[in-house]
Amino acid sequence: MRKGWMMCLFLFSYGWAQAQEKTGKTDMQELIQEQFQFAANQYKVLSRQVPPDRMPKTYYADRNEVETSDTKWWCSGFYPGALLYIYEHTGDTATLQEANRRLAILEKEKHYTGNHDLGFMMYCSFGNAYRLTRNPAYKRTIDTAAASLATRYRPGAGVIQSWNASRKWQGPVIIDNMMNLELLYWVSDNGGDKKYRQIALTHADNTLKNHFRPDYSSYHVIDYNLQTGQVLKKVTAQGAADSSAWSRGQSWGLYGYTMMYRFSRNKRYLRHARNIAVFMLHHPNMPGDLVPYWDFDAPGIPNTYRDASAAAVMASALLELGRYVRGKERKTYVAAAEKIIRSLSSPAYRARLGENGGFLLMHSTGALPLKSEVDVPLTYADYYYLEALHRYKNWYL
């Protein structure tokens, strides 16, 4: 009798858990579809405020003005990339037409060698365009962009130089640069020069060696002697202090090493990504909604700015990281990403239709020490938010 009762209890509990999981999946499916449809409508508002030869950058509510950039700005690829994610999930032809118009003005930047940002600029845009269409012209653009990015590789130091030398530093490399390795590795794996793969691996290895502290937090900027590889100094440009954990930088590192594991299957990269995730998720200054303050060590916490862009990058990275682990760890990463998505989709962070200049998310922080783009919408916050929605729908529903 007791065995029968226990079996009934087990079957009831199992059935209840299955029903809850199904309800949760249905709820997320509806939320994701709603966000993509909102994005299609909201970006029509944004597109009307951006001149044909420019890209959106941010919006300032105090003067009701959308700030734009030329196509050389490091964020120029995020807007067309976001449009392509929206089109992919809505089939909205006006959105595709807008994406094509912006790709057309961006294409010339495949030759740009002024900094390390070709991955952000050309892979987030043309990479998505090629993934969706298999248009060979898009692949040629990506291939050329990889060749341009490779010109910034410095063999003596084994790194891709982020910014040019100045009175401030000789050979700066920032943690953000991990994101641009995707362009190089993808091209190498898809018929391009094999040296691009080696550049990506060498850069990732030296960044792992020099950028990270024992607790797996990252410095923002490492200044190298580019001839010898000697580390000259470890500093910040956008964080609260040289020794602090600038939040978006931690997200770049998490995303970058997860992506590098995808390509290389080097377990060292996977271990490193997992350790970064632990640092972020268990940090005592991580808010309950998992949208970080602009720096984990920012003065004034909790009375300081959040960074929705750091949260969006983190969510997208955690969803990929969840694919490479199992059991409880996988559930932890996916649950955290889901919580971030729900937070960003709430009225606390997602704008209302027609507001916020046409951008999707509010409350990002670009570079607070420079008093630049503080508590505003940003194109990369929108892009990685949409990518997180895309990944959750494709991988976990």
Topology:
Layout: H1 2-47, E1 55-60, E2 65-69, H2 78-90, H3 93-106, H4 118-133, H5 136-150, E3 153-154, E4 159-160, E5 172-174, H6 181-189, H7 195-211, E6 221-224, E7 231-235, H8 247-264, H9 267-281, H10 308-321, H11 327-344, E8 364-367, E9 372-376, H12 379-396
Helix pairs in contact: 1-2, 1-12, 2-3, 2-4, 2-12, 4-5, 4-6, 6-7, 6-8, 8-9, 8-10, 10-11, 10-12, 11-12
Shape field = globular
CATH class: Mainly Alpha
- Strand order in the sheet with the most strands: 5-6-7
Please indicate the percent range of residues in DSSP E strands (runs of 2 or more).
5-15%
Radius of gyration: 21 Å
The overall pLDDT average reads 95
Task: Give the helix tally.
Answer: 12
pLDDT below 50 for ≥5 consecutive residues: which ranges? none
Order of helices and strands: HEEHHHHEEEHHEEHHHHEEH
Largest sheet: 3 strands, antiparallel
The CATH architecture classification is Alpha/alpha barrel
Share in helix = 40-55%
The count of β-strands is 9
> What's the number of domains?
1
In short:
Helices cover 54% and strands 9% of the residues. The chain has helices at residues 2-47, 78-90, 93-106, 118-133, 136-150, 181-189, 195-211, 247-264, 267-281, 308-321, 327-344, 379-396, and strands at 55-60, 65-69, 153-154, 159-160, 172-174, 221-224, 231-235, 364-367, 372-376.
